[in-house]
Automatic annotation (TrEMBL):
It holds the Pfam family Pkinase. Residues 9-266 form the Protein kinase domain. Its EC number is 2.7.11.1. It comes from the Bacteria. It comes from Gloeothece verrucosa (strain PCC 7822) (Cyanothece sp. (strain PCC 7822)). The chain crosses the membrane at residues 308-330. The lineage of its organism: Bacteria, Bacillati, Cyanobacteriota, Cyanophyceae, Oscillatoriophycideae. It catalyses: L-threonyl-[protein] + ATP = O-phospho-L-threonyl-[protein] + ADP + H(+); L-seryl-[protein] + ATP = O-phospho-L-seryl-[protein] + ADP + H(+). The keyword Transmembrane applies. It is an enzyme of class 2 (transferase). This is non-specific serine/threonine protein kinase. InterPro entries: Kinase-like_dom_sf, Prot_kinase_dom.
Length: 460
């Protein structure tokens, strides 16, 4: 403890250690405030000069890959890398948060809507990784961090730099965690859709509340038999089944393909078509290290009330909302999630960015240019009482606002019908049909709009 690495990084804590080296928490003594960072020591198992030379070559290549991947907001940035005393070090951004595994409790399945949200976030991250010719190879809940700052999922620990630490440099190295790796990866031939298998397993784990190794299998086909253990729609089950096919040739071929089918499910309630021609995969993938550590409470729902909706003044129009971002159905929650919207007229300032959640309005049309399908959005929550008349208003000088209100435990809701590029506001006025937690979706009426807005709600 207290050791100074590269004359700069002061070690304060050992986070983990194993055959490949150790991972430390450290202070960067050359930056104002001495910010915390993560330092990974990679220790080759032999002092052979030829092995050390090869290790250095692989280390530098992997460091450059990590540097490139760190440009994504949900992948830790590589801050520095160096060699000292024939040991190699990576310095990475410290992510404050808790692993996704903290949200997965044995015997406590998540709701389908929660699982869809997790899948979309992971697949968006993974799509970026694969576009950079990298296979992660060790995707599991412990390697996914729910960042405290914004509750986004951060993909960590790319791992393949561990290859340089193996004693037998001539043999293929198995990287991955049993239960999350498919057969081709287990025999040393990982592919891009090996990562999709892992994400599919995570989805099934979340829906069943069971660890992957405990799920029953068909011994003849190796198919995982999980449908009877989960409350899941046939559409989502179909998507997950395709993600975890035993034969990689039968799986989705890219993260983008899975996302397209999930978006079709969100907006239409129907599964997307199975592609007849697999999308081309990136060629000559690299494989790769990374990091650390706060989760959200489990959510439950009260009973649904079937009272009818009352509209006021034609300001709101009835719609059926496929619950974007939140999943197929929005569950009622015992406590109000963040961010909260107070019905006291207080104005909240917000900003839609390219890092927010996304949905595709035109995803049912596979020929529509994807650039024109993307809409960014944020969610807000409030508790409302049956019969309460409320008003929700969004204004902006930078985007054309659009509002949607989703009822508790339902896909029903209302959206403003006053959408015009020349009108800088959106407004919903409604008598609430039931008591429960409502979700307000803040977005724009035009694709790919980003900018500031103001949001307020009040009782009338």
């Amino acid at each position: 403890m207290g050791k100074l690495l590269d004359g700069r990084y002061q070690v304060t804590q050992i986070l983990s250690q194993g055959g490949f080296g150790r991972t430390f928490l450290a202070l960067d003594t050359k930056l104002p405030g001495n910010p915390i960072c993560v330092v990974k020591q990679l220790h080759p198992a032999t002092s052979s000069s030829s092995v050390l030379l090869k290790a250095q070559e692989l280390f530098e290549r992997e460091a450059k890959i990590l540097q490139q991947l760190g440009e994504h907001p949900n992948i830790p940035r590589l801050l520095a890398y160096f060699e000292e005393n024939k040991e190699f070090y990576l310095v990475e951004e410290y992510i404050v948060g808790k692993p996704l595994s903290a949200e997965f409790l044995i015997g406590q399945p998540l709701l389908e809507e929660q699982v869809i949200t997790i899948l979309v976030e992971l697949l968006e991250n993974l799509n970026f990784v694969h576009q950079n010719q990298v296979i992660h190879r060790d995707i599991k809940p412990d390697n996914i961090i729910r960042r405290s700052l914004d509750k986004k999922l951060v993909l960590i620990d790319f791992g393949s730099v561990k290859e340089v630490t193996q004693k037998d440099n001539s043999s293929k190295t198995l990287i991955g965690t049993p239960g999350y790796i498919p057969v081709e990866q287990a025999v040393g031939n990982p592919r891009f859709n090996s990562d999709l298998y892992a994400v599919g397993i995570i989805g099934i784990q979340a829906l069943t509340g069971q660890m992957p190794q405990e799920l029953p299998r068909n011994f003849n086909t190796e198919q995982i038999l999980w449908h009877d253990l989960a409350k899941v729609t046939p559409e989502l089950a179909s998507i997950l089944d395709k993600m975890i096919c035993h034969d990689y040739r039968d799986r989705y071929q890219s993260a983008r393909e899975v996302l397209e089918d999930i978006h079709r499910l969100i907006w239409s309630g129907q599964p997307g078509p199975v592609p007849t021609q697999p999308s081309p995969l990136p060629t000559q993938p690299h494989s790769l290290p990374t990091q650390l550590i706060d989760a959200e409470p489990k959510i439950k729902s009260p009973q649904k009330n079937n009272n009818s909706l009352v509209m006021i003044g034609g300001v709101a129009s009835l719609v059926v909302l496929a619950a974007i971002g939140g999943g197929v159905i929005f569950s009622q929650i015992e406590s109000i999630p963040n961010p909260k919207l107070s019905l006291n007229g207080k104005i909240l300032d917000g900003f839609l960015t390219e890092q927010d959640k996304v949905f595709k309005k035109n995803s049912l049309n596979p020929l529509a240019p994807s650039d024109h399908q993307i809409f960014y959005y944020k969610d807000y929550y409030f508790k409302g009482n049956q019969g309460q008349k409320i008003s929700i208003e969004m204004t902006s000088q930078q985007i054309d606002p659009s509002l949607k209100l989703v009822f508790p435990n339902s896909v029903d809701g209302v959206e403003n019908d006053d959408i015009s590029p020349s009108n800088p506001n959106a407004k919903i006025v409604v008598d609430l049909p039931e008591t429960g937690i409502y979700k307000v979706i803040v977005t724009s009426s035009q694709p790919q709009e980003t900018g500031s807005y103001q949001l307020s709600g009040k009782k009338l």
